[in-house]
Specification:
The complex is a heterodimer of chains A (about 525) and B (about 325). With about 525 residues, chain A is of the alpha/beta class. Chain A is about 35% helix and about 25% strand. Chain A is globular, with a radius of gyration of 24 Å. With about 325 residues, chain B is an all-alpha fold. Chain B is globular and about 60 Å long. In chain B, helix 5 packs antiparallel against helix 6, helix 7 packs across helix 11 and helix 8 packs across helix 9. Chain B has one domain: ABC transporter involved in vitamin B12 uptake, BtuC (Orthogonal Bundle), CATH 1.10.3470. A two-stranded antiparallel ribbon of chain B has the order 1-2. In chain B, strand 1 and strand 2 form a beta hairpin. The chains are: A alpha/beta (about 525), B mainly alpha (about 325).
C-alpha cells in the first residue's frame, strides 16, 4: 500500500486522483446531526475554500478529516485509499495536516518542542534535543522563515510568528493536504499577505490546501475552487472565477452583502459629547484627542499593535490613562478601574471573548447578569429573557453553559451582559471576530440600534470593510498615536496609508485586500 | 518572509525578561537563609553548619526530596497526589513487615514496597484519566482509603528492618548521608526523564494543555498514569528510607510530617506551576533544601514551633507571589 501511495504522490498532474475525497460524510452529536452526507474533493496543488456560516458544519467536516471526530457514515480517501482514522495521530501519519482556529502551541515550551510534540525524534525514548532543534530550523527555513529560533519559547513570539510555527507544526510530517481553519483570525492585514505567500509556496509543491474562512476577500484572493456549506449540507462547489462575493453570500445566508450594514447616522441624530479625551496617554498610547457624541459610531482602525486595543482599554479603565484629561458627560472623570468605568456608564466588549468576556462554564443567565450584579442599584433595561430575544441568541435555555454556544451566540451574550446595565458609552473591540455572517449582521444592527438610542459607540476592527461600512467617522492609529481622521465611506487605501505611517501610496504592499 | 520579520519586529517589540528565573530565585533564597541562619545561630554561640547540623539538614532533605521529586512529576503533568503521605506510611510498614528482620529478605521487601506504591499510583492515574475524577478529589479519596487500611490494621510501629538495612539511613561520607546521595541520584534520573525523554516531553505537554497534546498525537491518559505511577514510586522510596531510619514501619510516619502538603509546597517553591506544564526537579530540590534549612535553623534557635510554621507558610506565599509577578505579562 505504501508503494501505491508513493507512486501516486509523484503523479500530481493526474486530475483523476484527488488527494482527498470525502464521500457522504455524516456526523451527529447527541443525536443531533450536524453534517448531512457531504462530499468534498481536493486536487493536488489547489486551494479549496470551504465557506459557510458558523454552525454550517465546516469545522466538524474538517475535524472528521483530521481524525478528531469519527464520522458516523461516509468514507475518507487519501490518494485513492480509503482510510478510517481512529485518532488525530493516524490522520497525521496519513498526510493530513491541520492548522486549528485556536492556537495549539504550548506557550511555555520552545518552538522545536512544539513542532515535534508527539513525534519527538530520538531512540529508545530518549529525545535527541540537538537534532530536534536542527530539524525544526530546517522545517522553518523550508517555509522561508529564518527569524524564528527553534530554541525560542513560544510565549515570546508575536502572534504572526506563532501562526507560522502553527503551520510549520502541521507540516513537520510529510503532509499531502493542509487544512486551515480561520488562519488569519488573529493576524493583522500586513501579516495576512505573508500567510498568502506561504500558502502559495505550499500549493506550488503539489500540496492540497483546504481553506476554511469567514473572510470572503481572502477566499477570493487565494482559492481556486469554493465549496459552500449551509446547515450541515453541501450547497455548491464552483471554480472561484465563476463566483462573486454576492453569489457566495447569497449561497451562505440567502441575502446580499450590502444588506449587512445598517444606514449611518444622520446629522440630526448626533447628540452631545458623551466622552472627551484631551492629550490622553499611558505607556502604550500618546497624545490622544478623542470625542464621541451620543448617537455616533466612531471607527478605530490600525494595524495589530498600533494601540487600538490599548486605547479601548484606557477608556474603559482596564489599563487607564496616566496623562491628559478625560471627561464623561462633560464632567472630569477618573476612570481608574473597570468598576469606575462601569459606574460611569462605559461598557467594554473585549476582543478576547473567551478570556475576558465570558465565564465560559457559567450559564447564559449568570453571564448576562454578571455586570448588573456587580453594580447593583443601576437601573436595568429589561429582563434576561427579553435581552436574549432581542439579540436572537439561540440557546437551549438561559440555564445552558455559555461554552456550549457558537461564537456568534457567545458574542451576543457578551453584548447582552452590557446592555443589562444600560450603558451610555459602548467600546467594542473586534465584535465579529470568528463569527458567521448571519450573526455579524445581527451585531451590526444591534450596534446601530444602540447608537440610535443615544449611546456613543467606539468600534475597533481589523476588518476594513466592516469598519468602513459601520462608522460615521474613522480614526486611524499608528504607533500609539491617532494618525488621522477620515470621513465616512473612505477607501481602504486611505485607511491603510495612515495605518502604515506612509504618506505616499504605493509604498505599502499590504492594502491590496480585494474590495468586493 | 523578510517583510514579516520586519513588521513583527516593529509592531510587536518583545522584552526579553532578564530577571532571575524561579530556579535561580529559590537557590538565592537558600543561600541567603544559610548565611543569615548561620549568623543568627553563631550569635547564640552555636554552629548551624557543623557536622551534625549538615547531616541533619541533608537527612531532612532526603525524605522530603524523594517524595517531592515524585510530586514534581505529577504536578508538571497537570495533576497532583495527596495520597503520598499515607502511602509513605504504608510502604514503610510493607518494607519492615516483609523484611521481618532477615537480611535475606531485603530485596523482596524493597520490591514489595515499590510494587504496592506502583499499584496505588496506577489506581490514582486510572481514576483521574478514565473516570475523569479531578486529581485533587481522586488522590484525596485514595488517601482516605489508605488511612482506613492503616488505622484498621495497625496500632503502632510494626515489622523490623535489619541492622544492615538501617545503614542505608545512617551511613555517611563525611557529613553527607549516603541516603542523600541516593536521593540526588533519583533526582538526576527524574531530571533526565523530564528533560530528555519522550515521556518527559509528553508530561510537560499534557500538563500545559491536555487537549493540545491530544490533538498533537500524544497519548494523554497513558502519560498521566505514568506520572502518577512515578510519583507513587517516589513516595514508596521515601517509605523504604524511613523504614530504614526507624528500624520498623510506622503507620503515621508520612502524615505526621505532612509529606503530602510539604511536598507540594517544595514543588511550588521550586517554581512549578500548580496548573501544570512548568516546573522541574532542580527547582524542587532547591525548594526542599530551603524548607529543610529553615526548619533546622529554627530548631537550633529554639524558636516557638508556632512561629516556625508561620514563617514557613509566609515564605511559600511570598515565593509564589514573586513568581506570579514574573510571568510574561499580557496575552498574545
Amino acid at each position: 500500500m505504501t508503494v501505491v501511495t508513493l507512486s501516486k504522490r509523484r503523479s500530481g498532474e493526474d486530475p483523476g486522483t484527488p488527494v482527498v475525497r470525502l464521500t457522504g460524510i455524516r456526523k451527529s452529536f447527541q443525536g443531533n446531526e450536524v453534517v448531512h452526507g457531504v462530499d468534498l474533493e481536493l486536487q493536488p496543488g489547489e486551494v479549496h475554500a470551504l465557506v459557510g456560516e458558523n454552525g454550517a458544519g465546516k469545522s466538524t467536516l474538517m475535524k472528521c478529516l483530521a481524525g478528531i471526530h469519527a464520522p458516523d457514515q461516509g468514507t475518507i480517501e487519501i490518494d485513492g485509499v480509503v482510510r478510517r482514522f481512529r485518532s488525530p495521530r493516524e490522520a497525521q501519519e496519513a498526510g493530513v495536516a491541520i492548522v486549528h482556529q485556536e492556537f495549539t502551541l504550548l506557550p511555555h515550551r520552545t518552538v522545536a518542542e512544539n513542532l515535534f510534540l508527539g513525534r519527538e525524534p530520538g531512540r529508545f525514548g530518549r529525545v535527541d534535543k540537538a537534532g530536534m532543534e536542527r530539524r525544526a530550523g530546517e522545517v522553518l527555513a523550508d517555509l522561508g522563515v529564518t527569524s524564528i529560533r527553534p530554541s525560542a519559547v513560544v510565549s515570546g513570539l508575536s502572534v504572526a510568528q506563532q501562526q507560522i510555527v502553527e503551520i510549520a507544526k502541521a507540516l513537520v510530517l510529510d503532509a499531502r493536504v493542509l487544512a486551515m481553519d480561520e488562519p488569519t483570525a488573529a493576524l493583522a492585514d500586513a501579516e495576512v499577505a505573508l500567510l498568502y505567500d506561504l500558502v502559495r509556496r505550499l500549493t506550488g509543491r503539489g500540496l492540497a490546501v483546504l481553506y476554511v474562512s469567514h473572510r470572503l476577500p481572502e477566499v477570493f484572493d487565494l482559492s481556486s475552487r469554493i465549496t459552500v456549506m449551509k446547515d450541515g449540507a453541501h450547497v455548491a462547489t464552483e471554480p472561484t472565477g465563476e463566483l462573486t462575493t454576492d453569489n457566495v453570500v447569497r449561497l451562505m445566508v440567502g441575502r446580499p452583502l450590502n444588506a449587512l450594514f445598517p444606514d449611518l447616522a444622520a446629522a440630526e441624530e448626533l447628540g452631545k459629547e458623551r466622552i472627551a479625551v484631551a492629550g490622553g496617554g499611558n505607556a502604550r498610547i500618546h497624545d490622544i484627542d478623542l470625542t464621541i457624541r451620543a448617537g455616533e459610531v466612531v471607527g478605530l482602525a490600525g494595524l495589530q499593535g498600533s494601540g487600538r486595543s490599548a486605547l479601548a482599554r484606557a477608556l474603559c479603565g482596564v489599563a487607564p490613562f496616566t496623562r491628559g484629561s478625560y471627561q464623561v458627560e462633560g464632567r472630569p472623570a477618573r476612570i481608574r478601574s473597570p468598576r469606575r468605568a462601569v459606574r460611569a456608564g462605559i461598557a467594554f466588549v473585549t476582543e478576547d471573548r473567551k478570556g475576558e468576556g465570558l465565564a465560559l462554564r457559567q450559564t447564559v443567565q449568570d453571564n448576562v447578569l454578571l455586570v448588573r450584579r456587580s453594580v447593583s442599584g443601576r437601573r436595568t433595561r429589561s429582563t434576561v429573557a427579553d435581552l436574549l430575544r432581542e439579540m436572537t441568541v439561540v440557546a437551549a435555555s438561559p440555564a445552558s453553559e455559555v461554552r456550549l454556544l457558537s461564537g456568534g451566540n457567545q458574542q451576543k451574550v457578551v453584548l447582552a451582559k452590557w446592555l443589562a446595565v444600560g450603558p451610555t458609552v459602548l467600546v467594542v473591540d473586534e465584535p465579529t471576530r470568528g463569527i458567521d455572517i448571519g450573526a455579524k449582521a445581527t451585531i451590526y444592527q444591534l450596534i446601530r440600534d444602540l447608537a440610535r438610542s443615544g449611546v456613543a459607540v467606539l468600534l475597533i476592527s481589523s476588518e476594513l470593510p466592516e469598519l468602513i461600512g459601520m462608522s460615521d467617522r474613522l480614526l486611524v492609529m499608528h504607533r500609539g498615536r491617532i494618525a488621522g481622521e477620515l470621513p465616512p465611506q473612505s477607501s481602504e487605501e486611505d485607511v491603510m496609508r495612515l495605518a502604515t505611517g506612509h504618506g505616499q501610496p504605493g509604498e505599502n504592499g499590504q492594502s491590496e485586500e480585494a474590495e468586493s | 518572509m523578510t517583510a514579516l520579520d520586519a513588521s513583527t519586529a516593529t509592531a510587536v517589540p518583545r522584552r526579553k525578561l532578564q530577571m532571575p528565573g524561579s530556579t535561580a530565585t529559590v537557590y538565592l533564597a537558600l543561600g541567603l537563609t544559610l548565611v543569615v541562619g548561620s549568623l543568627l545561630v553563631a550569635e547564640r554561640g552555636g554552629t548551624l553548619l557543623d557536622q551534625p547540623g549538615i547531616t541533619k539538614i541533608l537527612t531532612l532533605c532526603t525524605a522530603l526530596g524523594l517524595v517531592a521529586i515524585g510530586q514534581t512529576i505529577a504536578i508538571v503533568a497537570g495533576s497532583l497526589d495527596l495520597s503520598v503521605a499515607h502511602l509513605i506510611g504504608l510502604t514503610s510498614l510493607v518494607t519492615a513487615e516483609v523484611m521481618a528482620g532477615q537480611n535475606g529478605r531485603i530485596v523482596l521487601a524493597v520490591a514489595a514496597a515499590l510494587g504496592v506504591a506502583a499499584l496505588v499510583g496506577a489506581v490514582n492515574g486510572l481514576v483521574v484519566t478514565k473516570l475523569k475524577v479531578n486529581p485533587f478529589i481522586a488522590t484525596l479519596g485514595m488517601a482516605l482509603v489508605l488511612q482506613g487500611v492503616l488505622e484498621h490494621r495497625y496500632t503502632g510501629p510494626a515489622g523490623e528492618t535489619t541492622r544492615d538495612f538501617q545503614r542505608l539511613g545512617y551511613d555517611r561520607v563525611g557529613p553527607v548521608p549516603v541516603s542523600f546521595l541516593v536521593m540526588l541520584g533519583v533526582a538526576a534520573l527524574a531530571w533526565w526523564l523530564l528533560a530528555r525523554t519522550r515521556t518527559g516531553h509528553h508530561i510537560y505537554a499534557v500538563g500545559g494543555d491536555a487537549e493540545i497534546a491530544r490533538v498533537s498525537g500524544v497519548r494523554v491518559s497513558r502519560t498521566v498514569i505514568t506520572a502518577h505511577v512515578l510519583c507513587a514510586l517516589a513516595a514508596g522510596a521515601t517509605g523504604i528510607f524511613l523504614a530504614s531510619r526507624l528500624g520498623a514501619g510506622a503507620p503515621y510516619v508520612g502524615t505526621d510530617a505532612s509529606y503530602d502538603l510539604q511536598s507540594i509546597a517544595a514543588v511550588v517553591l521550586g517554581g512549578a506551576l500548580l496548573a501544570g506544564g512548568r516546573g522541574g526537579v532542580i527547582g524542587t530540590i532547591g525548594g526542599v533544601m530551603l524548607l529543610a534549612c529553615l526548619d533546622t535553623t529554627f530548631d537550633d534557635l529554639g524558636v516557638d514551633p508556632f512561629l516556625k510554621d508561620v514563617v514557613r507558610g509566609s515564605v511559600i506565599i511570598v515565593a509564589v507571589a514573586l513568581y506570579a509577578r514574573r510571568k510574561p505579562g499580557g496575552r498574545t
